[in-house]
Write a structure and sequence with these properties.
heterodimer, A: 344 residues, mainly alpha, MetI-like fold, two-stranded antiparallel sheet, 15 helices, globular, B: 701 residues, alpha/beta, binds adenosine-5'-triphosphate, binds iron/sulfur cluster, binds magnesium ion
Chain lengths: 344, 701
Amino acid sequence: MAAITSIPVSPPPLSILKILQQPRSLIVLVLLMWLPLMLNVMLAGSISETVRPYLLLPAIPSALILYGVGVLSWRESPIAIIGLTLIFFWLIVAVSVPFLPLVDPNKPIAPFAPIGAVKNNHYFILGADFKGRDMLARTLWGCQRVLVWGVTATLVAYLVGCIFGLVAGYLGGWWDQVISFIANVLLSFPVMVLFILIMNYLGASGFNIVIAVTFASAPAIMRIVRGLTFDTKNRDYIFAAQTRGEHPLRIMIYELLPNARGPIIVDACLRLGYTTVAITTLTFLGLGLQPPDPDWGLMIKEAANVAKSPQFAYMLLIPALSVSSLILGFNLIADGLREMSLRD
Amino acid sequence: MSVSEQTPVLECRNLCISYFTRAGEIPAVVDFNLKLMPGEAHGIVGESGCGKSTVALAIMNYMGKNGGIVGGEILFEGRDMRTMSGEELRRIRGSKIAMVYQEPMASLNPSMKLGEQLAEVPIYHEGVSREQAIERSQKMLASVRLPDPQRIMNSYPHQISGGQQQRVVIAMALLSNPKLLLLDEPTTALDVTVEAGIVELIKEISAKFGTSLIYISHNLGLILETCSRLTVMYSGEAVESGDIGTVFTKMRHPYTRGLFSSIPVPGADKNMRPLRSIRGQLPLPFARPTGCYFGPRCDHFVAGRCDQGILPMLPVESGSSHFVRCVRFNEIDWSRATTRSDQHAPIETGAIVLNVSDMSKHYTIESGSAVLLGAKKTVKANERITFRAREAETIAIVGESGCGKSTFAKVLMGLEGATNGKVQLGDVDLANLPVQRRSENVISRLQMIFQNPFDTLNPSHSVGSQISRVIRKFGVERDPAKVEERVNQLLDIVKLPRDFAKRRPRQLSGGQKQRVGIARAFAGDPKIVIADEPVSALDVSVQAAVTGLLTDIQRENRTTLLFISHDLSVVRYLADRIIVMYLGKIMEKGTTEEIFSPPYHPYTEALLSAVPIADTSVKKRKIVLTGEIPSPSNPPPGCPFCTRCPYVMKGICDTQVPPQREMAPRHVIACHLDEATLRAMQPVITIEPREMEAELVAGGA
Ligand SMILES: Nc1ncnc2c1ncn2[C@@H]1O[C@H](COP(=O)(O)OP(=O)(O)OP(=O)(O)O)[C@@H](O)[C@H]1O
Ligand code: SF4
Ligand code: SF4
Ligand SMILES: [Mg+2]
């Protein structure tokens, strides 16, 4: 007996994948990828141009590792992997674009150069736009702003939506009535009208896009979270926490929220898609991000007039397809996650 | 014509049924045999997941997309159902075979009047005219003992009670005059006294209509009351089958014997004759051992014999109809008592720790539509509850659904305030002290164990973190190492391996979750633990282990246990004192001895008679209640039981609140019947002396 108990019980050796799959490593990797990218885009004016690209160096390996881990952990769902591949294609482009052999996306070279043309010593793989700027460079650079503002806006909308949803769902009564009323008022506006109102009032900028998206999305998120909270708040484990005298805040964040995460994550992926559409549309309407830096919405807007003749349609199609691939990626991930959650 | 010459209504031969899932083939039922003669009632008993429902669904041919019969045959009136055409099967199902499910609402269309749903059956199957169909439906409703069939015909399903719904479903099944009626846990969702009525009805059916029955249940007592033969299933296999009398008194399979010693029958006692649970747990269908599936849990396991090949069903004596699936049944000494479990001296109770006096809790609800503002109703969930609990005492609160048990727990725990009265814990009055305003000390003295094992733990956090939260919250320990040590100790106490601390609740079985729930409740060293039906959702063989555990910890810590339950058998086994409640009021209270012997309150008497007891030596006096349970928002002004009481005195009982009659010190009955009548009551449960080949309940002899 003694012999048996004295054998040291060493934990089974963790494979690298296992280590990387732990929440802590995932969070570190995501931050390593995300923070540089965000700083790069949001603080564009205040960082010197020579330092700026080097900020992105740690983000490149992080993005590659995250993609690998994602593919390995979602092996069972091909749909999710296709979605993941689309998203990570753009993410990896976003973090590595300063190091790619591209020309300056804002430099006019040869106006209206068609796809595959060689003009002024430059090979236009995807052609040039009406000002003569290289489409390939513009498209690849353009993903940075869409990704950063789209994800940030969605995250902020989620933060706000979750807080109000938890409060309305858990505390109920008077809280619920007031919050639900405001949400219903906001939801009754057509989304685009709401966007245009807010952007017109606040002025066009990335941060104001975040505010507009929050106003437009948070009420719907609030409703989802509120519904999920209603379902879970009568569970015995919540009752147990209450009889233990836990603070309502702790119950909401620690006991309720983690159990709502499944549906929330799926919805977040879908909503990232909507937000991308919304941001592109706003920019197209001239209410969002401002020129000259490349952005898909801007590219579509600028091409809109010229692209009426079919031979220049590529100026419009290329950014449009890029937006679609990103949205498709988010939606496929949402589908894949839902499918996987239904299986077990 | 003797029975053996008749064609059986149904015969299953070496039936094997599997489900096909992503994880592979799950053999849900293996080598199942059954022969059902006309008019016979056959019981199938076994624990959750053993394949009982699968057998019934296969007979109905309702296996779903991923299920299928992979071997053997099902003969209906001598013909193999697998060779029948789809059309023929459809005709048989529904007209010759009918099924009643656990949830009555699963068989009823919520948006259609009951009369039309019933009338559809004869119209569809026999093509009779609408008038005839309605007339027959009405007759059938009367014959399942539904009062006022006319009204029921014109109601929607939600307008009648659960017990009435189940009667309608049975009536619907009988309308097509089936040869075979399958009942899958038909009373599990109902209250005991309502269940008793349905069981009585089911017994009548085979006699009156000549229908053969297959009755599926996890409750041996119910099978004893309704069936003449039974099959015991374990992990997809039939392990024993035979006549009720034989199997109940001369069982020849260790699992059957284990099952019987883990249910509380009269005579079991938590101190002198504790129940014995079966160790271990059910194997998962794809992780069954080779040889005997029961092997790892069996006391008579012999390596090399029990773990070889596939075991056949063997006749106990040649030619007998008693079969077991055990290679060693001939070698086991069945007359020897099973190993004893520990005996204990009765616990000495201590000082009074909880004093509830005249506590009432009324809810105000808006009645009817919101348009009628001001029309408010009062639901008297608890009315003048008075009792005292001592240290180390076990007090059971017994009653059926809606009697106010859970409301009482909520008031005690501080989630609701009392409307009136006092709840004294030491010198603190808890009656109107919400949990937020209670001191840490008061909160930690009162803890709770919940009914539903699947709900009691937060699925998002590990078992260890949920227990350690309580330890830290109540300041039992603060140092992380000591907290972990304490978590490990608690896991030891509830007999779970220490590495369960790192597991998530979904990796645990129901019984294991309930143990974690117990560990969590005791983590803060409480003085009083309220257990709300802690074992009713568990399998029989696990129930005994969990109740045993609860009493052990209680004995060790001298905790007061308030045990809320609807199950009088468990209560009789566990409690020192019992409080019987009905619609928010205490009907009777006294020691366990006093409650189980006359004089009774009429409701207690009915309750005692309703509880199915899995013991052939027990004889019960039948008291079947008629009448409906009144709505809690509109109870009769007098005695709440007057709508169903067999002794009711019109003019008194329904208008005047009954007096509290003290039959003995602290034995109180709230009833208008005079003392002499109460004292003249005869016992409901009598135990006839009978030769038992062995003392089943361990610790006897
Ligand atoms: N549709 C299904 N797909 C896969 N497996 C299933 C399916 N239905 C049942 N099973 C499995 O088949 C086995 C037998 O299930 P069954 O429902 O017949 O048990 P039971 O004895 O009726 O249990 P209970 O007492 O809980 O009703 C179980 O292990 C169950 O998990
Ligand atoms: S075959 Fe062996 S293991 Fe199985 S029940 Fe019989 S004695 Fe026990
Ligand atoms: S008071 Fe009347 S109705 Fe109530 S239990 Fe006694 S006899 Fe029955
Ligand atoms: Mg079942």
